[in-house]
Amino acid sequence: MSPTAEFLTRSADETERVGERLGRRLVPGDVVALSGELGAGKTCFIRGLARGLGVTQGVSSPTFVIVNQYTGRMPVFHIDAYRTESLTELLDIGFDEYVSGDSVTVIEWSDKLEPLLPPGAIRVRVSGLGDEPRTIRIDASEPRL
Question: Can you tell me the distance from the alpha carbon of 19 to that of 40, in angstroms, rounded to the nearest whole number?
Answer without folding.
Answer: 14
